[in-house]
Amino acid sequence: MTKAVMKISDDVDVSYMPEARAYTKRGATVAVKMDRPFSVTTQYGVVIQGDAGDYLCQGPVGPKDKYPCKASVFENTYLDSSILYDGNVG
Q1: In the chain, N or C: fewer CB atoms in 10 Å?
Q2: Are 53 and 71 in contact (CB under 8 A)?
């Protein structure tokens, strides 16, 4: 017996669902703003292109957890906590 897949429309705002809860990521994301176009292979083996001005991010999983992020998305999502950064990502 296969369960039906629920299709979520683009205009659904999860924050209004009664079961919604706020979550915070564990670990640090370390990033550098790139001054020229670049490509990176993600931990899933997918090659993704980044543009000049995008951020190259490394997540808490480690060196293989790399991905590009558009500057507008990065700068509206992440806060600079480098004062807390001790050189360890995880």
Answers
A1: N
A2: yes
